[in-house]
Amino acid sequence: MGRALLGGYYFCYFAAQAAAGCCMNLYLTRTLGFSGAQMGWFYGLSALVTAAALPAIGQLADRTGRSGWLLTAALALTVLAADRLRTAASLLSVLLWGGAWECGRSSCVALADRIAMGACPAGRYGGVRAFGSLGFLAGGLAMGGLVERLGVERALFPTYLALGLGALGCSFGLHTPLRPAERSKLGARKLLSIPAVRLSLWMGALGSVAVGSLQPYAAGYLVERLGASERVLGWNTLCCVVPECVLLPLVSRRALPRWGERRLFVVTTLALCLRCVLYALAPGAGVFLMGSLLYGLSVCSYTAVNLSYLQRNVSEEQYAGAVLVSASAAALGRAAFGWGFGAANEYWGGTGVFWLLFAAAGVTLPLL
């Protein structure tokens, strides 16, 4: 029952994130008239708020053992903030509710992954997490047609809110507390003294940018710069998620036991470099979609590989804190990328963002 609810949660949650990934940049630019610099502030400040909050949430989850209740609270915040973002009129209110939305949805990912890693037998996390990939696929494909028929605003927010409420309903079945003996009394400083945790923070930041920051920008680039129709957004989601659905269970069950986390980090980082090059040099939608086929490897690195690496290198009572600290580093990565995105978009044109991430991935390879 617990794994079925986890699968339902992942499906609804990531279908909602697909809706946001397809349309949020288009909403900010077309409906609100944001410039590249303003979008950089939106994503950068939102991520900074998240980075400040997540370590405290992780410590609270470890100390209380109530990850499920915290997940429900984070989902409620996400739904409320999305509804308020829909009616926000000023730049300040957009930034305020954008920060709350980003904080809530980032907490949801980390808390649900913590619950899933505890509920699933070894090697089974990828199979449960693949329901999220299916949800992302369904949401992305649906949004392509909905945006074409209804427009960005009328398609984005009703869809996001309905799916968010579905995930919220599933979360009430995930409230099984940890045993008291598993609850941590150790702080974030102890975690950061572990070399494996520090590497995980960097890989979490890189993976989060490759999955959470690059893809929404890529969707806008595909429509605004390459001249593709909104329906192509559905094909882009298909190219991203179908390989992901295959790779997540395969990596969890076979590749991780055989190759280990660090070798897989090398493979996924090389794939990210190639993906950025294809995006930057794409003359049209066809080559761009070829780059999106590599998206699933970044998801594997950010989720199954990084979570396994943390689980193997920290104690059980520190695990929720480690996952949330890694998520905080991921938020900082998105903040840095957000401001870098604004600068790259303003001064170097659309492809500058892809080269920025290519450079970050290239610097990562010697660390592995």
Strand content: under 5%
**Helix content, binned percent:** over 70%
Would you count the extended β strands for me?
0
The secondary-structure class comes to mainly alpha
Please report the number of helical segments. 14
The N- to C-terminal Cα distance equals: 39 Å
Describe the main β-sheet briefly. none
Which shape, going by the Cα principal axes? globular
Low-confidence stretches: 180-185
What is the mean predicted local confidence, pLDDT?
A: 80
- Whole-number radius of gyration? 19 Å
How would you describe this protein?
The structure is a single chain. This protein is an all-alpha fold. It contains 14 helices and no strands. α9 runs parallel beside α11 and α9 packs parallel to α12. It is globular. The chain starts with a helix and ends with a helix. About 2% of the residues have low confidence.
